[in-house]
Structure formats: C-alpha cells, structure tokens
Amino acid sequence: MTIAQVVELPGVREAVEDARAAMDLLRKQRILRTKGIEVRALALSESARAAAELGGIELPVAVALLQSSISTASAVATAPMQSLARFHAIALANGATDERGRPRDLTSEESARLFAINELLASDSQIPALVVAALVMGEIMDLAPFEMANQVVARTFFRSLLIGRGFDPDALGLPEVGMLALGASSFAPALTAYKSGTAGGVAAWLRHLASAVQFGARRGIEICDEFGDAPTT
Fold first, then answer.
1. Contact (Cβ atoms closer than 8 angstroms) between residue 191 and residue 202
2. Phi/psi class of residue 152: alpha, beta or left (left: φ > 0; alpha: ψ in -120 to 50)?
3. Could you tell me the fold of the domain covering 3-227?
4. How far is CA 206 from CA 14, 64, 74, 152, 179, in A?
5. Which of 68-77, 99-108, 194-203 has the highest mean pLDDT?
6. CA nearest 44: which of 25, 20, 71?
7. Is pTM beyond 0.85 here?
8. How far, in Å, CA of 131 to CA of 7, rounded?
9. In whole angstroms, what is the distance from residue 153 CA to residue 170 CA?
C-alpha cells in the first residue's frame, strides 16, 4: 500500500482535513498579532505538562524535548536518525549515560524498517504532513528501536514533523494535550490496530492522531480567546 493510498483509506482524508481546518483557524486568530509570544508560551507550557504526564517523565525533560522539537524541526526530515538519537538522549537525561541516544541491537529486518523512515520523509509534498507524521510515529512505536522511552521519542518526532513540514510552523498547536484528552482507552486500541498492519488498522491510527491534533488546535483557539478576553492594564 502506497502512502497516497493510505490517504484515501476510510475516514482518513476527512479527519486530516478537519485537523488542518482547525489548525488554519488557530493560525488566523487576530490576537496572535499582538499577543503571539504570550499565546505560544502558554500553549507550550500546557503541551509540556501533557507530554510529561503522557510519558511519565519530569517536566523539565518534557520542556527540553519540546524545545528541541522546535529548534531542530528543519533537520528532522533530512537527518531523521540523528534526530531520533537526539530526542532519546534528552528523554534519558537522568538515565544511564551509555544508553542515551543509542538504539538497541536491531535485526537486519528491523534496521531496514527503521531506515525506511527516510522514504516516508521523502514523500511527495502533496501528501498531508499529518499523514506522514502519523505514519512515522506509528513506525517508531511499533519498531521500538530503543530499550526505553520509545513513546516519548515518537511523540516528539511527531510534533517536530508537524512543525518542519509546515502544518504547524509556529508551534501553536497542542497535540500532546489532545492525546492526553483522548486518553489511553483510545490510544491503546489505535496503536494495536496500526501494529496489525491492516488497512483498517492504519486508518484507525491516522484518524486517532488527527482527532488529537484537532483537539489540540481547538485548545489553542481557546487560549487565544482567553487572551482576547483578558482585561488590559
């Protein structure tokens, strides 16, 4: 199944377009012209707290991962293996030094699958960024190239791709907040479906992440509204 065929799986295009519309609406909020820095700071703060809860990591580590996902977004697509290692090293900031940024021993088949991520990242620019990011996240989580912190790394990579591929270039969305809101009862079945390798399973995973991104964009709009309603001094 090609990536173009993935986009046409049941409900995928619609879910992606709904998420795209929510993100576009967020980016058009007028308050960003005057309070953009403040809005973005609050959005990143909420995202970091959600990421910390999702990954069971300390808040400073979550903040560092978010900052790295933004600062290195342009390099994720061109140097994905280095980006994976960088995110993993940050995730294990308080762990064993010899494990930070180092993958586990992979079989030849697993190595080939890991490096196949390069092909996903080289997808035609007409393929929605959310689809590419969701597929890469799914592959990282299914393959689990590290001994630990694979979900943390995968989520960070997902966000960085959304930024780097122009879906959320200003890092205004809160996908981690959306993932947390949907909860493990929604996430676990979606990931299991993706791991099944069936067309229906892949579609379910993509729809799940699109819903999380849409939720996060809507939360971003709420933050904009809060700043717009705040009294001036």
1. no
2. alpha
3. Fic-like fold (1.10.3290)
4. 11, 27, 23, 18, 13
5. 194-203
6. 71
7. yes
8. 7
9. 21
